[in-house]
Amino acid sequence: MEARKDGRSWRIGTAADVGWLAEGRATAGLSITTAIPPVYEGYATFHLPEGVSFAAHERAVVDVLAAQTPAQPWWLGFLETGAHDVVFPEAPRVPLYWDWPYVLVEAGPEQALTWRTGHMRGDGSLPDLFFPTDRSWLVSALWDDSWTDLGGPASLIAALCRDPLVNARPVGPDEDALPPGLTRE
Fold it and tell me: For residue 161, how many other CB atoms are within 10 A of its CB?
C-alpha cells in the first residue's frame, strides 16, 4: 500500500517489514532489550538535555544517524496513542511490542524530522520507532518512557555519545535503560 504526502507516494509498511523486530525482542523488563532486540554490537539511551530545544536535540540525533548510515530509505514508525499524530491516519496499523498499533512508512531522515509535531516525549517530531532498511541500527521510544533507546554498531554509539546535543550514554544489554536523573512515571 502507498499513501500520498508532500506531493509523492510513500510505501506503508506491513508486519513483514518489522517481523525481525517482533521475533528478536526480549521479554518485558527494565533492560534496553525490552525495546531493542539483543542483536546489536552496542546500545545507548538518549534524552533531551536541559536547556536544549527539541528541534536542536532531534536534528543532532538524525544528523549523527545519517552521517553513520549509507544512503538508503528509513522505516518510520508512529505509535497510535490517540493523543499523537500518526501522520497517515488512514494507513493500516502494524502491531509491535505488546500489540501496540504503529503506522510504518518507508521514508527518510528529513521526513523523520518534519512530518509530525509533538510526541509522547514532548514537542519534538521524531517517530517512536525508526531504522534504515539495512537494519544496521534501531531507535525505539516506548510509549511510557521519557527517553529513547538505540541499538547499533559501536562506532555509531560512540558518535552519538560524543554529541552533547544528543545526550546519549552507552548501556549494556542487561542494564536498566533508565538514564541517570530520570524517574519512571
Answer: 17
**Which string of b and e fits 52-77 if b means at least 16 CB within 10 Å?**
eebeebbbbbbbbbeebbeeebbbbb
Write the pLDDT tens digit of every residue in 102-118.
999 999 999 999 998 76
Query: Is there a contact between 15 and 95 (Cβ–Cβ < 8 Å)?
Result: yes
Question: Would you state the pLDDT for residue 176?
Answer: 79
Q: Are 147 and 177 in contact (CB under 8 A)?
A: yes
Query: What sign for the dihedral angle of Cα 160, 63, 30, 41?
Result: negative
Name the pairing type of β-strands 94-96 and 129-132: unpaired
pTM score, whole prediction = 0.91
**Residue 80: other Cβ atoms inside 10 A:** 17
